[in-house]
Amino acid sequence: MEPTATATTDPLTADELVLWQSLGRLVHSLPRVLEEDMAGTGVIMTEFAVLLLLSEAPDRRMRMSALAAASGLTPSRITRVIDGLSRRDMVRKERHGVDARGSEAVLTDTGLRAMHAAQPAHLASARRRVLDHIPADLLPGIAETLAKLAGGRALPR
Q1: Where does residue 82 rank: exposed (0-12), middle (13-18), buried (19+ CB within 10 A)?
Q2: Is 103 exposed, middle or buried (0-12, 13-18, 19+ CB in 10 A)?
Q3: I need a surface site. Which of 8, 42, 86, 94 has the fewest CB within 10 A?
Q4: pTM of the model
Q5: What is d(CA 157, CA 150) in angstroms, rounded to the nearest whole number?
Q6: Residue 37, Cβ neighbours under 10 Å: how many?
Q7: pLDDT over 90 at 147, yes or no
Q8: pLDDT at 96
Q9: 155, 156, 153: which is closest to 69 by C-alpha?
């Protein structure tokens, strides 16, 4: 359902205002606490997300542009993240096999081990900070809505 022209400028309802303000706080506070939760693993949350995406990709490799899009990072930010992971031998950067103008990030065995080692902290953080606060019956609808808002596809049920 598309909003009407007047609906877009109408004041927010009380529930809409609570949602909007809470989302604003969450957008700013959640990354900080997730990074704190991951601090002891040697892999920060952004790096973990990138390693996870690469671990799920065919041959554990993705074009840099696709990796940026999938992670929600800008091309320059994904380059900095990959360069940092490369310095720690977790990822290799290679020229694309068909299109030499583009680069691919390739997850190394070291990176895969680091991701697996950090995964328990990541899962505990995800549950403690978000998932444990969402009633099970609301989870599918919230997941679908957040996937749409993030520009991803809705998840199959």
Answers
A1: buried
A2: middle
A3: 8
A4: 0.81
A5: 18
A6: 17
A7: no
A8: 74
A9: 153
Q: pLDDT class for 93, splitting at 50, 70, 90?
A: very high
* pLDDT 10s digits, 55-86: 999 999 999 999 999 999 999 999 999 999 99
What per-residue string of b and e applies to 128-139 under the rule 16 or more CB within 10 Å gives b? eeeeeeeeeeee
Question: 10 Å Cβ neighbour count for 149?
Answer: 9
For residues 104 and 133, give the distance between their C-alpha atoms in angstroms, rounded to a whole number.
37
pLDDT of residue 102: 82
